[in-house]
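Predict the 3D structure for this chain.
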Amino acid sequence: MSFFAYHFIEGVLMKSGGPKRKSFFNSSAVFDSRLVDVVSEQMIDYASAIGACRSKLALQIISNMFKDRDWSADDGPKILDFINKREEWKTENILAPHEIINLEPFSKHFGKTVPVSFLKKMQTNWEQEFLLALLWGLSNPDKFKLWYEKKYNEDKKILEEAKKAGLDVDFIPTLEQYLSSCEEIIKNYEHKMGNLPTTIPPRLIADAQKLGVIFE
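Done. Predicted structure below.
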């Protein structure tokens, strides 16, 4: 099993200050449910960015996720067939990737907090959602770029207004800056889990080319 989604989510959650205890008398470690929801959405956007703008890296990741499968077999992975069947991806609206890959909110089921023990059980689900986002980005690069441009302009306007109000806020990354951070996360993953495959299965390359993918 791959750990791409879990690696991202674990890293962001731990940077938030780590899990907290529910109370002095309850040693069960928990995270704020809304925080987990936000980080899960960020994971989807991050995977979509790689698929849309770093296609070669995306194919390496997909190769790694299916490293135990025979791509040349009749029952081998067929990403083109899978993508073509996703009717909900064919919308012309410019939506956030996490609105396309619609996640079930943790806050809906757990209330204010989510046990860390449960998050560890979510790894398979997260990896499947990561793959979906990767494939959506791979097949919708223009939609992703239009969404990010729209988001960047909206966030930049909010940032300028916040600065005028004297608030100390973070900068808004350009698309290239955002992609650089995505690549850095993958490098950290490789350092921890091992290098991604350098050889991409011919069928995967052929399917990507049929999608019109330009290798970046």
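The longest strand covers residues 26-32.
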